[in-house]
């Protein structure tokens, strides 16, 4: 999301850097454009959203996008708390209420990276979804992959999505993480930089119990990364758990 800053050239990192600190009159309009795209989906993971501070005109962007996009449930993970100046966060938007949501503070030399773990349903056939934003440095990412591997390894139906700040080749080089989450051989999705994509840094990863359909990059210049999307086919056992959860919630 880059807190609602539209970046369409490398020089914008410099000329628009002030928007990381100060409000911008067009930010609300850009959020409305984002919400219209997000409304097509059932679950959305967000990185680099502001939780309500001076730079976002005191708007909690996770809550705003949930409301405008028609998502009944949302969750904000505050990763860097700079008080009234910035509330740097991850976010989750969902049409189905998770059974449980947990925050994870990812290890690293510099604090401020995190992951959201949402569980849908109970038992071995529950769906587990992680929204993560990993570090820029290779060393820190390796520690963060180790951390996530410990959590993911005993789970069965898993989705990991977010800005992992690494290419598919770098991702596959971490054997422990790939062993905990067998990956589908999905073609790399070039998402960075958004105005001329050359690198696949953003990923939606699925356990081998799930089937990826219609994997795609969305052509929308909302930040310096392009959003990616996938339709997921669930096994009948997992689908039954989610349907039971839905029936329970609408009673």
UniProtKB/TrEMBL annotation:
SUPFAM superfamilies linked to this entry: DNase I-like
InterPro entries assigned to the protein according to its UniProt record, in alphabetical order: Endo/exonu/phosph_ase_sf, Endo/exonuclease/phosphatase, GPI-anchor_lipid_remodeler
Entry superkingdom: Bacteria
Residue span(s) of domain Endonuclease/exonuclease/phosphatase: 27-225
Name of protein: EEP domain-containing protein
Lineage: Bacteria, Pseudomonadati, Pseudomonadota, Gammaproteobacteria, Oceanospirillales
């Amino acid at each position: 999301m880059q807190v609602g800053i539209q970046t369409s050239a490398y020089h914008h990192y410099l000329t628009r850097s002030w928007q990381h600190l100060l409000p911008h009159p067009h930010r609300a309009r850009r959020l409305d454009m984002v919400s219209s795209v997000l409304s097509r989906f059932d679950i959305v993971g967000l990185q680099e959203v502001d939780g309500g501070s001076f730079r976002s005109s005191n708007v909690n962007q996770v809550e705003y996008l949930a409301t405008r996009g028609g998502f009944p449930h949302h969750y904000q993970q505050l990763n860097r708390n700079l008080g009234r100046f910035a509330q740097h966060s991850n976010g989750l938007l969902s049409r189905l209420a998770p059974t449980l949501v947990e925050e994870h503070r990812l290890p690293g030399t510099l604090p401020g990276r995190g992951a959201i773990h949402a569980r849908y349903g109970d038992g071995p056939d529950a769906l587990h979804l992680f929204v993560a934003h990993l570090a820029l440095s290779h060393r820190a990412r390796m520690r963060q992959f180790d951390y996530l591997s410990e959590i993911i390894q005993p789970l069965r139906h898993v989705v990991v999505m977010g800005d992992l700040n690494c290419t598919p080749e770098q991702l596959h080089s971490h054997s422990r993480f790939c062993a905990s989450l067998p990956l589908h051989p999905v073609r790399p999705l070039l998402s960075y930089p958004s105005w001329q994509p050359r690198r696949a840094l953003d990923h939606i990863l699925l356990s081998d119990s799930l089937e990826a359909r219609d994997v795609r990059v969305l052509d929308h210049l909302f930040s310096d990364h392009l959003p990616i999307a996938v339709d997921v086919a669930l096994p009948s056992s997992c689908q039954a758990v989610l349907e039971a959860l839905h029936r329970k919630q609408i009673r």
